[in-house]
Amino acid sequence: MSSDPSLDLGDGSGQESLSGVTNFLQDGGDAGKVLSASIIGLIVSPVVAVIDVVNAVANFFAQPFDNAGDAIGSLLTGLFEAPGNLLTAGADISETALRSALGETLAGTLAFPITVGIVMLALYLVVRYLREDETGDVLPGLPIDVPTDIFGVEEEDTIDE
């Protein structure tokens, strides 16, 4: 019982394809198979090319949505994990500092509430700053202005909005 020869076209370049067809025919392959495969290949190749073009266009339009999904995932991770990591790290640092001053038991109990208090105080200070209360030009928070007309420079009247 003889085995059918196989058609190996290599990497698809012209020389490799011709060498593969020649080897197939020399090994006793059927020329009709080569001819029918060539005709089918000519018919199918434009369809494959159109499918590749449609696939490329679909990927082109889908890529921003894929990237947006990744960006939203990263944003949510940053919004929810980062504050938790900050609180955990702050609690660890507070516990280490309190352990030397207050002992093991009390330090572990107070570490997290103190860290939350520090975070809340920092948020309060940021919100206070963003309220944009009118302040002077000497120190932030104090309504004291340095008189500039002493130096010969007059301030222009500005209307506060």
Output the keywords.
161 residues, mainly alpha, 3 helices
Question: How do the strands and helices of this protein lay out in sequence?
Answer:
Layout: H1 14-26, H2 31-102, H3 104-130
Helix pairs in contact: 2-3
General shape: elongated
Helix content: 55-70%
Question: Mind summarizing the main beta sheet?
Answer: none
- The number of helical runs is 3
Total DSSP E strands: 0
Keywords: Membrane, Transmembrane, Transmembrane helix
Can you walk through the features of this model?
- The protein is an all-alpha fold and 161 residues long.
- It has one domain.
- It contains 3 helices and no strands.
- The N and C termini lie far apart (98 Å).
- The model has no long low-confidence stretch (mean pLDDT 78).
Summarize the model shown:
Keywords: Membrane, Transmembrane, Transmembrane helix. 70% of the residues lie in helices and 0% in strands. With 161 residues, it is mainly alpha-helical.
